[in-house]
Structure formats: C-alpha cells, structure tokens
Amino acid sequence: MGRHSCCYKQKLRKGLWSPEEDEKLLRYITKHGHGCWSSVPKQAGLQRCGKSCRLRWINYLRPDLKRGTFSQQEENLIIELHAVLGNRWSQIAAQLPGRTDNEIKNLWNSCLKKKLRQKGIDPSNHKPLFQVDNQQHKISAANTSKNSVNASNEVNIHKGNDSKFDFLSSKMNNDNSNFITITPTKEFFVDSHESLITSCSHSDSVGYLPFQNYDQFNDSTFSPDQNPPTLRFNSEYNSTILPAVSSTISTTQMGFKPCTNFLSDTVQYREATNTSANCGSNSGGSIFSWGLADCESSYKEAQIHSVESDAGDIKWAEYLDTPFLMATTSLQTHTSQPTYVKAEAHYTSDGSNPTWDQNHKQQKQQHQIF
DNA sequence: AACGTGCGCAACCGCCCCGCG
DNA sequence: GCGCGGGGCGGTTGCGCACGT
Predict the structure, then answer these.
(1) Which residues touch strand C (CB under 7 A)?
(2) For A38, which DSSP code?
(3) Which nucleotide is closest to A51, CA to C1'?
(4) Interatomic CA distance for residues A234 and A344, integer angstroms
(5) 0.85 cut: is pTM over it?
(6) How far does the CA of A307 sit from the C1' of B13, in Å?
(7) CA A41, C1' C1: Å apart?
C-alpha cells in the first residue's frame, strides 16, 4: 500500500510536463506501445515514474482525446450517468468517447455540482434539496411501520405541488404501513420521457418520482408504433407502490430513465437523449442502451415482457452490459401480486426509429400492463 | 498597475484490486 | 496463504490564468 516503489526513486521529475517530455513519451508509445508502464520512462528516456507517464498519456497525449469544452449534451449525459453510477468516473468516461475520467471529474466538481445546486438538486443523490427534509420525515414514519418491505421494492414518492398532477391522488395508509397508495384518477403512466416512476438500483443512487417536469405529460392512448414508447399502467388498477418510505434509497428498478431528466428543460433533455442514442450506437450498447429508451431514434425494435424474477434479482450489471434498454419497475396491485415490467428496446446502428415488437400486444394483455 | 479572488485543469496522492511468484 | 508489484481509480492539491476592484 501507499506509495509505489517507483516514487521512491531519486531524481524523478514531478509537476508539469515539458513539451520535450511529451514528445519523448508520445514518440515512444506510438512506436512501441506502452506495455509495462513501469518500464516506459526508462525506455523513453524520461525522468518520471511509470504512473506519471500513464496518467500523462491517458489524460493528455492519447490521440483519440476530444479537446475543447463539454457540450450541453455531454453535460446532461454526465449528469444522467452520475445519477446512475455515482462517482465512478471511469465508467462514466467510458460512455463519452474522447473524454477522460479526470476531465469529467473536474467538470463535475467545478461546474456541474454547482449547476445542480442552483437548480435545487442535491448533486450527491440527485434529489431535490427540499426533498431531503421530506425524506427525514418519511424515515420517522417508516420507523413506526410494522411492515417489513424488501429493499428491492422500495420506491420513494415525491408528489410535487404542481397542479398538473391532480390526476394522481396519494395518501399514507391509515394502518401505519409504509405504503403510499396511488390511485390514478385517470390513466397512469410510466412514461419514457417523464418517468413517473424512475430510478435505479445502484447502491448509491436515489430514486424518486420526478414530478417536477411534466410539461410533456402524455395522456394519449398507447399505440404500437408510438414513438417514443410509453408504458402505461392500466387505469383500472388502484396501484400501490412499495413502499412510500425508505431510509436509504429507492430501488425500484427503472432502467430506462435515469432520475435526472427533470434537471433539464425539455429541449435540453431531448438533445441529451439523442446524444445517448448516437453514442449507444457507436459503442454497440452498454449503459447507453437504457438511455435509448428515451430517445426518438436509433433503436428499432422494442418489446415489453414480464420479468419472472424479483426486481431485486435484476443485477445492475445487466444494465451496464446489456445491449438493450431494460426498464423494470415493480407495481403491486390490490391483489398484492407484483407486476414486473421489463422493456427492452433493441436498436440498430442505422439510426432508424424504434418499433414495438409485434407480440407486445399479447404480452400487455397477459400482464395487464397497458 | 497592483493586488486579491475564483476557477479550471493537470497532476499527484493514497488506496484498492489483481496477478504472480 | 502471503507478500510484492503493477495497474487503475477516486480524491485532493496546487499552479496558472482570468477577472474584478
């Protein structure tokens, strides 16, 4: 642990790299590749430690690096990814071609955190700052609850003051259980644009229902070729979402919608998702894939089917590795039968618009999702 | 012009993980 | 199983620049 042995060696330069050093390192790696980093400085004739060389190469000399300021799309994407991945800068950077983890980390610490706070968002958990107080309130309520609810089913509910949401009524159950019953007074959506239910299961991520941005709330009827797809829960359900309170995180799994979209105004958000789509196509999938669900391009087929396993069984890694969008949420009906919905959006690199899989109608009937 | 302040960025530090002997 | 070294990552620092007073 601690310092690497190379750092103890004498006469090793530290600090800023000179153009001559850059030139030496660049020339060496271009010709020989880096191989074992610890041997690079010696071979390249540099008075640096291997780690320093590696860092310099990765963060500055690499030929595929993108220079210049971050675009709005990139910033939005970083925010969304951070909501999912937390401070896993290398994983975030992996989704932004030409950007380094260091660059993204710097941007986050110097700029994005500030922006989020200005928008009233806690950058550490992507929740509205005022919700922290509410959350504490709910935790107290939870402590009095007799019910024990699997964390994998937890979801926080934030009902904004926005009058647009009077189609939903919610109340705490009278029996002190930690449920909030949501009774849609008209059709109740899980919408790929607005994410009525959102969030992710990542350990540090906090999910909630971002009701703040419902300008585009879509109450149109679902159509197979609707673009983008909209998931809608049957209005006949008086749905209970489990549970209303959580001491830590919400883990209802909703892969296709990171919980940060409300940060951006609609235009920005659409731009961001389009970027995701493009990147997803370029990278052949991975984490961008679920972002594709929000996009209006780049994925071709989509299908909805139920998930047999518990929501908690769905590993976050699946979101990261799968080439598909996966949107999973749990919704417990009055019959106490959880309904898990998993949406997969298959995309292709040709940028064509998505279409729903042909059998989705049958599936939606079977599971009474729509 | 001089000074103070804030900010962005490059680089370092410290730790963890993993492979190897 | 253990120690060591390399690679990698996230957190932090400090330099240099821009800007305001």
Answers:
(1) A 4-6, 15-16, 35-38, 50-51, 54, 87-91, 101-102, 105-106, 109
(2) G
(3) C7
(4) 20
(5) no
(6) 46
(7) 34
Domain hosting A87: range is 67-128
- Residues A52, A74 share a domain: no
| pLDDT confidence of residue A121 | 79
Mean pLDDT of A171-178: 28
Pick out residues whose CB falls under 7 Å from strand B: A 1-4, 7, 13-17, 48, 51-52, 55-56, 59-60, 69, 102-103, 105-107, 109-111
Q: What is the CATH number of the domain that holds A112?
A: 1.10.10.60
Higher pLDDT, A5 or A69: A69
Residue with more model confidence, A211 or A50: A50
Could you tell me if residue A314 is inside a domain? no
Query: In this structure, are strands A355-356 and A299-306 parallel, antiparallel, or unpaired?
Result: parallel
Distance in angstroms: CA A1, C1' B14: 8
Domain count, chain A: 2
Q: Which two tokens stand for residue A306?
A: 């139920």
Q: In this predicted structure, what is the pLDDT of residue A135?
A: 53
pLDDT band at A308 (very low <50, low <70, confident <90, very high): very low
Write out the H or E segment, with its range, that includes residue A92.
helix A89-94
Any domain includes A135 = no
Measured CA to CA, the distance from residue A18 to residue A50 in angstroms comes to 16
pLDDT at A72 over 60: yes
Residue A122 belongs to some domain of the structure: yes
| Residue A223: per-residue pLDDT | 29
Q: How large is the angle between the packed helices A266-283 and A72-85, nearest 10 degrees?
A: 80
Same domain, A72 and A123: yes
Residue type for position A19 = P
Which nucleotide's C1' atom has the smallest distance to the CA of A104? B9
What does the pLDDT look like over A85-117, one tens digit per residue?
Answer: 888 888 888 888 888 888 898 888 888 888 887
